[in-house]
Amino acid sequence: MLYTLAQTSLFSQVSFQYLLVSLVDHVLTIRLNRPEKKNALNTTLLNELAFALDYAHYTPDVWLVVLAAEGNVFCAGMDLKNLSRSDGSEGNSKEQNHQIVAVPEPSGPVRLGELMAELHKPCIGQVQGPVLAGGFLLIAGCTHVVAVESATFSLPEVKRGLFPFQVMASLLEIMPARNVMDWCLRGRSVDASEAQALGLVTQVVSSDQLEATVAKLVDELKQFSPTAMQFGLRAYQQLKSLPRAEWQAFLHEQFQQIQQTPDAKEGMAAFLEKREPKWGGTSEQ
Fold it and tell me: What pTM did the predictor assign?
């Protein structure tokens, strides 16, 4: 984690420059809010995303996250002007005139793929427009991605003399290696239907159904134990660092641990009593 629990406890006091955030009924909605720059990722926006995602990770009242964006483009990837400055400055743009963001400096470099993997809570990508380059790191790390029919997904790095190294790693988690390398090497742009066929997108809907579809998925996920989902997502990430021969022993231990949680006890009691469970939730700290 790039921020401590103590730092994220000040979340409600932070003034975000490029994010819109809200926490309603256990759902933290994070909206990229740099539409005039196609939500390109500069240093400030990356730090804000790291802070918001760490807050979601630590906070028991956050059961799941919705990741959305303002404007017509979901995310255009890294801000190349920002990337080209060795000091990471924002340049002499009008954006410097904005109020200074209160998000503290992270303890290390912000790597989006790691941020999403460490969330350990369901995250729904609500994709209303094109996703390019580094923007893939956000949606590839989501547990669910709902995209409009008109959305496109592009990896143009090779056309700029670059290569999507981190995106490649994230995509290898969810699709066959040859499909990943073809996408990266040819700098292709695919539509939402092909992105779904490749495994990046989980559901394609019309523009007028996007918010309703995400809301329905949110409601469905909230019916289930947040503790169980968090245990499962954490175990999924931990398996990657274990030899396959150790998987079953590790997962058996996880099952022993989860049975002792309040949510597991409530879920089993509710089942026996033929009633709906009342989840309490939990959080890693």
Answer: 0.89
